[in-house]
Amino acid sequence: MAQKKVFICDDDKGITDMLEMVLELEDVDTITETDSIYAYDKMIEFKPDILIVDLWMPVVTGDQLIKKIRASEELKHIFIICISASRDGLQVANEAGANTFIAKPFDVDEFLTTVENAVISAA
């Protein structure tokens, strides 16, 4: 089976670095973007199987990005994991079209289980 591609978009470089490091333990190819303005175009180029996206980012918010992806013929199949510290994050993520939601701060084991399930779902 081909290696799954995971795209991580969060405006906090500490989060993208940590998630990338955690995912090195999994059999996935990761790419990160901290500026959500570039995320969509990079995703068109990279064609990820899974997107991990923060909700609250400057300029293009996570829910705007999710809606744009869901409207795209090329990207709408992507399994989207939304992460956020927002109290209404789950509702916003669901309304935007995310597959699943993880509240920040999250447990690394819970995160890995979610990604592993996403890899299976994206198969």
UniProtKB/TrEMBL annotation:
Pfam families: Response_reg. It comes from the Bacteria. Keywords: Phosphoprotein. Residues 5-119 form the Response regulatory domain. The modification 4-aspartylphosphate is found at residue 54. One of its GO terms (biological process) is phosphorelay signal transduction system. This is Response regulator. It comes from Sphingobacterium corticibacter.
